[in-house]
Amino acid sequence: MSHRAALGTGHGGRAPHSHSVFSGPRWARTGTEPLTAYSALGARLVLSAIALPLFAAGAALLALWAASARPAGSPGTAVLVALAAVCALFTAVSAIDIAVIRRRRAERR
Length: 109
Fold this sequence. Notes:
Shape: elongated
Radius of gyration: 22 Å
Order of helices and strands: HHH
């Protein structure tokens, strides 16, 4: 008998949802994880808080550089605009991650 079959989960080692994602734990305890397991929310918050201003500044600086760049210059305007867009996307992802972390921490209290 496999370990997964012994647990009776059959869902990649995770038990099915016991509550709504919005009102309770994401996964039911299977009994194999420690009671004192820590969440990575603190580390995610620190990384997102560092990434947010860095990528926002990068997007702004690259956009300014693209606006003042000559069309025949190196790097080209299209490359600078693409890099600014990528930095803006990472800024948005960091902001969304901070909002999700704050919501999850508020749910725990």
